[in-house]
Amino acid sequence: MLSLVTKLGSHARRSTTATTTAALLGWAIGGCAHPAAVPRCAETPAPTARYVDADGNTLERYDDLWRQLARFYGATQPGAIAVHFAPGGPSRFDAAQATVTLSLGALRGRSLRPVLAHESSHLFLAALTGGASTLEGFRFVDEGVASLLEHQVAADEAVWKVQALGGTAERLRAAPFGLAELQRWSAFFGDGGERSDYGAYDVGASFVLFVRAEHGDARLVELLRAIGATRSLDAASRQALGRPLAELEAAWLAYLRRVDLGAAGPVHVLELRPANDEHGAPTDLREITVTFDADMAPSLCLSTPCQEGVCHDHARWKTPRTLAIGVDHPLLPHHAYRLALGWQSCRLKSLAGGELPLTEWRFETR
User: Fold this and answer.
1) Fewer CB within 10 Å, N- or C-terminus of the chain?
2) Do 246 and 166 reside in the same domain of the chain?
3) CA nearest 199: which of 311, 113, 297, 90?
4) Cα 21 from chain centroid?
5) At how many degrees (to 10) do helices 200-215 and 217-230 cross?
6) Per DSSP, what are the bridge partners of residue 323?
7) How many domains does the chain have?
């Protein structure tokens, strides 16, 4: 998610860019000519080794991720990607060194493969654009495409799309923005530290989803390729989509304003599994779930007894209306569990902005 420096905090993902390395990226990531001489990398066959570890050993178990990314990006691909791990901090990528670093702390409770696909996407796009995608003005597109491919790998694209578009549409109605704000990515998103706005990833993704909806994947990739050739979003839009940027921006914002957020009434719980006040819940549950009566915003406000085997770190949206909390180990027998959906200063909300009242969830195991 983040180039050279920082990325991926909470709700997936994320990134700032060390732009001083931009001149290196066009040739360092895949044997391409310097971008001053050639505006984008030449198309090259896929390397024999796709992923390697820090010691250079091949990681064939991730080859299917590479193939999925290659189906989207086409023949222009980076050289072999070295996968490193760090105990904490954000996950990040370094296009100049063709490496991705995955944060074990940020991965807790999350699948490694979608995160690896996200970080790898940055290197594929840097290869396609000769490094232009790492520049400030194109970072929102870079993160938007990486988020899309991450969720395709996670097989939850439909759920994510509803949440990303709904959250962005709600944000637009609260405080209007346009492409000029997104192109100042370090201000719109932040520097990758604690105060960064990771919701900005969904805003970037909304632009990518709009281009796909209007023009399809092939033209989206041509837009990305044109960004590398022109280093101009307006020129790229005219070249790849036949539209000046002002027209494209207006159509994107209109697309967001058509997102149906529904009525902003209060949210209600339809079903809890195990049920509230249930006695004799199985100890071998792999997850517990709560289903609401509205499509929900992606943010999570949960109070859970992590030390007892049920933890918010393992929570995910299974569908737009169903929240699942994974259980890695058998639950304690004859034990009373207490969770809270929301707390005083943080409430679960629907995409329309309706709140779930503070809800206690109690059950007892066999």
Assistant:
1) C
2) yes
3) 297
4) 24
5) 110
6) 290, 317
7) 2
Q: Which of 336, 326, 340 is nearest to 366 (CA)?
A: 336
Residue whose structure tokens are 């837009």? 223
Q: Which of 257, 289, 310 is the last residue of a domain?
A: 257
Question: Tokens at residue 236, please?
Answer: 């790229």
- CA 13 to chain centroid, in Å, comes to 5
Alpha helices in the chain (DSSP H): 22-28, 63-73, 104-107, 112-129, 139-154, 157-174, 179-183, 185-188, 200-215, 217-230, 233-241, 245-257
pTM of the model: 0.74
Q: What is the mean pLDDT of the chain?
A: 86
Rounded CA gap, 8 and 240, in Å? Answer: 30
Q: What is the CATH number of the domain that holds 120?
A: 1.10.390
φ, ψ dihedrals at 207, nearest 5°: -65, -45
Which domain does 103 fall in, by range? 19-257
Amino acid at 294: A
Judge whether 102 lies within some domain.
yes
Instruction: Specify whether 172 is located in the same domain as 249.
Output: yes
8 A C-beta contact, residue 39 and residue 228? yes
- The whole-angstrom separation of Cα 200 and Cα 222 is 24
Choosing from 257, 289, 319, the residue where a domain stops is 257
All residues at 6 or more sequence positions from 32 whose CB lies less than 8 Å from its CB, including other chains: 26, 38, 40, 41, 42, 127, 130
DSSP for 185-209, written as a single string? HHHHT-SSSTT--TTHHHHHHHHHH
**Residue 286 burial class via C-beta count within 10 angstroms: exposed 0-12, middle 13-18, buried 19 and up:** exposed
Q: ω before 266 within 30° of 0 (cis)?
A: no
Do 81 and 46 touch, CB atoms closer than 8 A? no
Q: Are 98 and 123 in contact (CB under 8 A)?
A: yes
Each residue's pLDDT tens digit, 136-172: 999 999 999 999 999 999 988 988 898 899 889 989 9
